[in-house]
Amino acid sequence: MKKVNVFICIICILIGTAGFRPVFAETTTELDEETVTTDSENDEDAEDEEPEEDETENEKILVILAVSAGGEEMIELFRNWPEKLPLSGVSLNYENATGSVNKPIYEFPEGSEMVGEKILFRYKSTDDADKADLTYTTNMSQAGGRVYLTADGEEIDSVCWGNYPDCENTGKLDTKFLVRDLETFLFSLLDSYIPDWVLEREVLTIPEDGGETGEGNGGETNGGDDDKPNVDPKPDDEDEEIKTPVCKGLKFSEIFTYFINDRGEQFVELFNPSSRNIALDECVLRYKNKNYELSGTVPAKKYFVIYPEEIELSLTKNPTKSNLIELVDADESVADSLEYFNGQKKGFALAKFDDEKEVWELTKVLTPGSENKRAEDDKQVVDETETAEPVCRGIQFSEILSYYESEKSEQFIELFNPTATKIRLDGCFLRYKNKLHALSGLIQPEGYFVFFPADFTLTKNPVNSNLIEIIDADGSIVDSLTYFNGQKKAVALAQFGYNDDGSEQWLQTYSPTPSEENNYQKYKTCPAGKVINEETGNCVKILSLSTELAPCPEGYYRNPLTNRCRKYATTTTSTLKECAEGYERNPLTNRCRKIVKNDGANYEVKEEKFEEKSSFVAVWAIVAVGVIGAIYVLFEYRKELFGLMRRRKS
Fold first, then answer.
1. How many angstroms separate the CA atoms of 531 and 538, rounded?
2. Residue 517 CB-half CA count within 13 A
3. pTM > 0.85: yes or no
4. Are residues 150 and 69 in the same domain?
5. Into how many domains does the chain fold?
6. 222 and 74 in one domain?
7. Which among 147, 48, 132 has a CA at the least distance from the CA of 95?
8. Whole-angstrom Cα distance, residue 268 to residue 380?
9. Domain assignment of residue 172, yes or no
């Protein structure tokens, strides 16, 4: 019986082999040994060839390999190119599903080169931010969005997910990963993915004068435990500057974590008890083993307020275990520390009321920037008198700019007087986050009035909508304005007439006009030589309509990402020796490489019809199996056959 099974297996293998060969042969074409590929211009039979595609996914040189916007938010890039890849002019960008957020999250400095196969980005506030090559500060939406790469303003690769318009990858990235298959170049939604990353690997080289990181280019370099950039090391003869402490004497005074509406309300207050001004520029806040840079000056005997949201810090509202915050000086020493505990209450601050004994108490009186007060001293209301009359009726909000470009002083709130009479603002207030801020001044008929916040700061881009109200002298609400998540840098929110249902129409405009009539500008103003791409809202270079690329001038090479001429990083190419006969200089590396000659025009491409040959082989394989089977049967049952023959003769 075992012998029969072995025989059956042999037959199956032979039949399977015979059946496989013709299928494979149908998809291949065999050439003579001396045959090489030729250009269609030199091939007489070029008309019979199928036209090649201009660009397939597999021909992309720099691609997005993996994306996640969940708890392990990350982006991974892959270099589909065998040599070092110049990254000058390359930008990694993000756009949310509504288009209200569309900006670069990392721009590679001029002269950057990708020397590794992959670059791993992580969101700065994730737990694994130290296990990345670069970090960024723009939090992506799990529900839907798009990540895309641009080179010199042109989009070269992208991937979308969730509810982004017309997106094929409809799954949310709450705890999932979009990962690209490098053979098919299609994305799949995976439950788990571990990026290929090791400590202290070299993936990117950045010139010393181009390695600045942070808000200017949207990201930060990250180098593992030492938090150093993965760039070429500094020369040994550069001694590191020994820094001296500058923030000693500053004390934590108040902290508010358990916000009422959104995280923009959180604050940390410092107090300077000394008789000198103290600059914070070389100091940092350390929270959960991460450092957050500070800036500004704390005047002598004054308070200074730090809003965590503005330094990309999010404090735990009510921690299960006590959380530690430290003020770290320039020399890495701890100038002061604050520990806030479980038991924080919504709308209550933790404030210090006895500096010597370090007495900290919860209070519902929030006093950022001023002396701490207990609950019984909370009388932040409008003074009511017998003659209090409404005086601000008719005033309307007209424009607001919260997301400043450089300094907080750029923030403003604009009011408009649509009436035919003058309106004096004395006695009126702006209410923001349950605090009143007095107004003073005169608005002419059909005139504008601009309020620049001095004793408070507007949340630049609130997570939840923020409410601002005009409060009249009698305590009534004159008008209200709600500005929402999705504010853009240096872009104002202004009123432009009314909608069909009679409600006010508020639009974002790239042309802020404090104290003037509102001006609607849908897109940013592009510099000379660039135009707006209305699909993305980005400025792109004006492209030539020519389909043929002219040779690059001497000293320039063609960028494989954009097909544009770029200047060599060095000017030493003229001093290089000429390449030997049969070799040419590689414009990307300045090395000599062998010239691959296209001399296939001298040979005729012969196509063999594999169907007949393979069918022939298959037939003989079946015949051979039959013969072997017959021999095996005769040999195995020879005794029975001889016995049968004897019986017949007898």
1. 8
2. 3
3. no
4. yes
5. 4
6. yes
7. 147
8. 21
9. yes
